[in-house]
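Hello,

Our lab assistant flagged a job as stuck in the queue for most of the afternoon. It eventually completed. Since we weren't sure the result was trustworthy after the delay, we are filing this so someone can double-check. Below is the sequence as submitted and the structure that was eventually returned. Let us know if re-running is recommended.
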Amino acid sequence: MIRGGEDTFLELKLKLSNSEKIAQEIVALANTGGGTIVFGVTDQLRIQGLRNPDGVQGEIVRICREEIYPVIVPYIDMVAFDSGQRIVAVDIEGRNSPYRTKAGKFYLRIGSEKR
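-- returned structure --
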């Protein structure tokens, strides 16, 4: 999945740094029918891993519960590699669209961008 790069249904992030932008990405995927965000991958499609994957999981759950309306329940997988690197994959389903951010903004995913 990662080798194919970003598209309408896949967003790759190196880390979770800005909860508002992550909420926007989740809303865009949910309003476009669903998709996946993978944390721990560079823009060059290399798996770099995360320092605190458990913290990323907790923050994603918080964002989906507190910064998105209606609330989204994400499916979260932590993937460990033989090298010891771990990534987090967040599957988003958009069953109750339209979704909006806490700021009241609606987004859609078009190609690899949110609009």
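-- support follow-up --
The delay was a queue issue, not a problem with the job. The result is valid. The longest strand covers residues 86-92. The helical segments are 19-31, 53-66.
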